[in-house]
Amino acid sequence: MRRILKLNDVGWKLPRLWDAATILDMKKGVLLFSKKEDQEAGKLGKELKQQLEAQGCSVEDFSGTDHLIEAKKLKQFSVGVVVGGDGTFLTLVKRMEKKEEVPLMGINLGTVGFITEFSREGVLQSVLDALEGKLPVEERPLLRVELKRQGKVVENGIVFNDVVVNKDTRTSLSVMDVMVDGQFLSHVRADGYIVATATGSTGYALSAGGPLLHPMVPANVLVPICPHSLSARPIVLPYEQRVVIRVHRFGGTAYLVCDGQINLQMEEGDEVHIEHCRDTHLKIFRSPLQGWSDALKAKLQMG
């Protein structure tokens, strides 16, 4: 009898789909985070705060703040509500000391968002449904990133969407070696290089010609930016594999950009170490009214 091979048989660990009722506590409050200096987002955030408080919910507004939200503070909330776009969502993720502590809901304003998939219509009911455990929650993987210089870690952090090694407009070319799990993969001459999670595959990686991955696929994408060789192609790898990008030269200025939020100037010889973050993850509420394929069709004007 032929045996059907399952993903778990080859060491893949699938992201989990959570039953929200198992992780929410109605006694906890709502964390609110609206897009900075955006009047429309600010107005909707204030209206939502008033409506929730009228329902007896505790709401704390972190809009416009730049400080880290500590883990002990995050424990006070059952739901994090982001009002704005995907960039605002990534800003809040960066500010959270403990990423998995609060499941997040993105309220999208304007264009269709892949992360912020809830609409402003019926936003109050959506938040109340989340508090009552009526909405599913997805667990999304994160990446741990280290910038090493002469063998020493000079910067590190956790990334949700993508890690980018990029040059400025005055720099003609970057030359990089890419290694996967300690094995040499390719010598790349390009404007830059992207390592994105499945969630981040719809962002900068897509603009650079990378493939689209469903967010529940346990994989990362590696995408060269404007490569100077036809052999340099996007690659999909299991997310458990460690990636190292070593920058040989760039004849100008190059940067390490994490989630479009953190920009670190690099030096020749620097190495970027990227690996799956095994000890933490991010939880995101899913909208029952918009699936990933719906956002895909709307954003890319498909069919």
Into which percentage range does the β-strand content fall? 35-45%
CATH topology type of the largest domain: Rossmann fold
Overall mean confidence score, pLDDT: 87
What CATH architecture of the largest domain would you give? 3-Layer(aba) Sandwich
Estimated radius of gyration: 20 Å
**Would you identify the CATH H-level superfamily of the largest domain?**
Probable inorganic polyphosphate/atp-NAD kinase, domain 1
Sheet with most strands: strand arrangement: 8-7-18-15-10-11
Q: Would you identify the regions where 5 or more consecutive residues have pLDDT less than 50?
A: 1-15, 21-26
- Helix/sheet category: alpha+beta
How many domains, in number, for the residues? 2
Q: What is the count of helical runs?
A: 6
Instruction: State the end-to-end CA separation.
Output: 42 Å
Describe the secondary structure blueprint for this structure.
Layout: E1 17-18, E2 29-34, H1 39-54, E3 59-61, H2 71-74, E4 77-84, H3 86-95, E5 104-108, H4 123-131, E6 137-140, E7 143-149, E8 152-159, E9 162-167, E10 174-180, E11 183-190, E12 192-197, H5 204-207, E13 219-225, E14 235-238, E15 243-249, E16 254-258, E17 262-265, E18 271-276, E19 282-285, H6 292-300
What does it look like?
With 303 residues, the chain is of the alpha+beta class. It has helices spanning 39-54, 71-74, 86-95, 123-131, 204-207, 292-300, and strands at 17-18, 29-34, 59-61, 77-84, 104-108, 137-140, 143-149, 152-159, 162-167, 174-180, 183-190, 192-197, 219-225, 235-238, 243-249, 254-258, 262-265, 271-276, 282-285. It folds into 2 domains: 13-140 and 281-300, Rossmann fold (3-Layer(aba) Sandwich), CATH 3.40.50.10330; 143-276, Probable inorganic polyphosphate/atp-NAD kinase, domain 2 (Tumour Suppressor Smad4). The strands form 4 sheets. It has a 6-stranded antiparallel beta sheet, with no helix packed on it. Strands 14-13-12-9-16-17 form a 6-stranded antiparallel beta sheet, with no helix packed on it. A 4-stranded parallel beta sheet has the order 3-2-4-5, sandwiched between helices. The relative contact order is 0.17.
